[in-house]
């Protein structure tokens, strides 16, 4: 911890600007992708963070009982890890972190989308 003041003082402003630019880009990617998934809604576009909270509509997923079940099955089937909102006291919400490189984030979100489509189609 003693090194933090030195690191902050000696880190180039360009580094911080690049991080902010990357987080804005990945927030946009995440928000747009979530809006394409029928069973997930994002009430607010993220600003000033590296994650977003999204509402999960389990009524559209007949074989999913809650956010914990969703996250567990998603991890097993798609190797994508999301935090169930229940762990934060917010049942049937999900926390999606977008602090990653855009190609990796896009691939993960495509897997979430595919997972949701597959589980929604089981209702038909």
From TrEMBL:
One of its GO terms (molecular function) is pyridoxal phosphate binding. This is Aminotransferase class I/classII large domain-containing protein. Residues 12-111 form the Aminotransferase class I/classII large domain. It comes from Aegilops tauschii subsp. strangulata. One of its GO terms (biological process) is L-tyrosine catabolic process. InterPro entries: Aminotransferase_I/II_large (IPR004839), PyrdxlP-dep_Trfase (IPR015424), PyrdxlP-dep_Trfase_small (IPR015422). Pfam families: Aminotran_1_2 (PF00155).
């Amino acid at each position: 911890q003693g090194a933090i003041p030195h690191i902050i003082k000696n880190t180039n402003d360009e580094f911080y600007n690049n991080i902010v630019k990357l987080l804005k880009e990945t927030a946009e990617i995440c928000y747009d992708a979530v809006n394409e998934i029928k069973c997930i809604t994002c009430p607010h576009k993220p600003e000033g963070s590296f994650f977003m909270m999204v509402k999960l509509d389990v009524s559209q997923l007949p074989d999913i009982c809650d956010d914990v079940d969703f996250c567990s099955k998603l991890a097993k089937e798609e190797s994508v890890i999301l935090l169930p909102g229940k762990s934060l006291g917010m049942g049937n919400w999900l926390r999606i972190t977008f602090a990653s490189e855009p190609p990796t984030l896009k691939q993960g979100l495509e897997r979430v989308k595919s997972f949701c489509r597959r589980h929604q189609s089981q209702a038909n």
